[in-house]
Design a protein that fits this description.
The chain has 6 helices and 14 strands. By secondary structure, it is of the alpha+beta class. β7 and β8 form a beta hairpin. The radius of gyration is 17 Å and the shape is globular. The mean pLDDT is 92.
Length: 239
């Protein structure tokens, strides 16, 4: 099945697109069951009253990967971006029903790498839960993309993303400089079993839960680029 042209156009022009019905209820239930069986005592698991998250998701739960990459999703990746792309980051986010956790507007400006190597045009560096991250050149980020798989119906009431349309075309765009009168802010509801494809340079945020409904999302980042001078992706896996 060839991906409809309108989805490719939206991703290019607006920085995101939403495609419903990628997974049926049985496939979603199987993913949730695999996540629920995981040992939650590891360093890559983060738990609080407002958020449960698993970093390096496919490394921690290998059984999840074939459930996520069904034939439909594999075809979509090929149709949108062609061959050569691979996974470079995978995270699971679970926002509980009464969560007050929110994320302010930001771009995804860093990549996860295996070790710290000082290179020109790579920086600043951070480390979180023993995971190095670095801001690479913008040209690298412009080729990458993210897929967010929704395991629950998601809208403004339980933390659907808000985005500034076409902000991915403005290179590094500092949130404090957003002119809301001139920009187009959009809420991105996604039904259970649907996906949102987005560019990492798209400004996006997520509000607090106000509806008493849970929001579970699998977040996957992709690239087709080798890193320079011995720098390696922390989570590189084939699709």
């Amino acid at each position: 099945m060839k991906t409809p042209y309108r989805y490719n156009t939206a991703l290019k022009e607006k920085g995101f697109t939403i495609i419903e019905g990628i997974y049926n209820n049985g496939e979603i239930a199987a993913m949730i069951a695999a996540i629920d069986r995981a040992d939650r005592g590891k360093d890559t698991f983060r738990s609080s009253a407002d958020l449960f998250a698993i970093r390096q998701l496919f490394k921690e739960i290998p059984a999840l990967k074939p459930l996520v990459f069904n034939a439909y999703l594999q075809q979509l990746v090929h149709d949108f971006f062609g061959p050569g792309y691979f996974i470079v980051k995978s995270i699971y986010f679970d926002k509980p029903e009464q969560s007050n956790w929110y994320v302010a507007y930001h771009q995804d400006l860093t990549i996860a790498v295996a070790e710290k190597i000082q290179l020109e045009h790579f920086g600043p560096w951070t480390v979180k839960q023993n995971q190095y991250a670095v801001q690479p050149p913008v040209a690298l980020l412009e080729r990458n993309f993210t897929i967010r798989i929704h395991l629950d119906d998601t809208d403004a009431g339980n933390g659907a993303l808000k985005v500034i349309e076409a902000s991915h075309l403005k290179k590094v765009y500092r949130p404090e400089t957003i002119d809301y009168a001139a920009e187009h802010e959009t809420v991105c509801p996604v039904a259970k079993g649907g996906i949102m494809i987005m560019k990492p340079l798209l400004l996006h945020s997520s509000g607090r839960s106000t509806s008493g409904r849970r929001r579970r999302v699998i977040h996957i980042e992709f690239s087709d680029q080798a890193l320079p001078a011995g720098l390696t992706w922390a989570e590189q896996q084939e699709i």
